[in-house]
Hints:
Elements: H1 7-14, H2 42-48, E1 54-62, E2 75-90, E3 99-114, E4 126-132, E5 135-139, E6 142-146, E7 149-160, E8 163-172, H3 183-187, E9 191-201, E10 204-206, H4 216-221, E11 228-231, E12 240-244, H5 269-277, H6 281-290, H7 292-302, H8 306-311, E13 332-335, E14 338-341, E15 345-348, H9 356-361, E16 365-373, E17 379-385, H10 391-397, E18 401-403, E19 408-411
Antiparallel strand pairs: 1-8, 1-10, 2-3, 2-6, 2-9, 4-7, 5-6, 7-8, 9-12, 11-12, 13-14, 15-16, 15-19, 16-17, 17-18
Helix pairs in contact: 5-7, 6-7
Amino acid sequence: MSFEAAARIADAVLYEGYLLYPYRATATKNRVRWQFGVVAPRQYSEATESDPWFLHTEFLLDCSRSATVSAERPAIDVRLRCLQLQSRTNETGSQGEPLVWDEGIERTIDVSDVRPDALLDINRERSIPIRLDAGLDVDDGVERTRLPIGGWLRIGAERVDRFMKVRVRVENVTANTADLADRDQAMRRSMVGTHLIVVARGAKFVSLIDPPADAAPLAASCVNLHAWPVLVGSPDRRDTLLAAPIILYDFPAIAPESRGDLFDGTEIDEILSLRVMTLTPREKQEARATDLRAAAIVDRVDAMSGEEMAALHGAWRELLNPADTPAPEDSSVEIAGVHVCRGSRVRLDPRRRADPIDLLVRGRAARVQGVYRDLEDRVHVAVVLDDDPAGDLHASYGRFMYYGPEELVPLEDA
């Protein structure tokens, strides 16, 4: 895999929390920004004991011949990505006051062809300077100011049997000349949304979430601070790793229905899009004026077709009811000696207590919409509540609640 192939996942990480709905500067939740992947100046971090001044990740490479068809010497390419904040000041606001807003400018630092076996001695750790330059741009009465950021990207390694443990550390040692307690000023000297993409050649990455048995103790020894390394790309290749500032599973993917960034990567596109539709024309105008990326969101949602909106409603990604089994609407399962299928009535008795909804629906009657089976032959019964005023609508859209057979009690039809 290449850096470019991992870029869409990485972009979702880079802009996580960049600007939240309703995408306006006046919104309370957009007044305290930059919560993910902040690598702040060390001086500020140690004075306030808040945002960290470093990111530290450790991961494993399987360097055995059986792990790769390539006989080349193991090597990695490392890409550091972050946002450098740019303070935008308009000449005057609607009341004659200066309008200040921090935009994010993408920054990338590449380190190519790193040979981990050349770094086995801790004293041979490779250190690459990080320099993000200051800048001042003036265009049509708008000033954009960037403050300098300095730091280090450090790479080291150690060998354990057939594995190589690699460590990468990102540090911000920018001199903080402003008030040490002023977070807004500190953020303008910080790397934001900071993450790493690492591509391997001549070796394969080992999952730290689900390592093979012989690598489990070594995987557990990996130290990760302010970073969460996961595999991305093809499970067969295992040649690309993302060290993210948020928790992800291995091989994360962007839903194909998603039409673009909404900056709430863990939220639901449909809900956020519907919320954007509820904004008044004046609120949309303010969102567009807040940030170019916010303007793009509003424009994109305004232009969405009914088919595009319907596609956001949801999809089941697992392969259910394989070809040699009946379709969900024709399938059935036996519960307490009763044949349960589409149209059967059941009482809900949730056992897993997965969320508060389980408490609210306990004891309520529902009608079965289908019986699903996954590749491990686990059964998932889809139901719609009898007393849900929107039950018919949910059924027509396929918005079901799913429970295991052990959580259902068959009822006689009225």
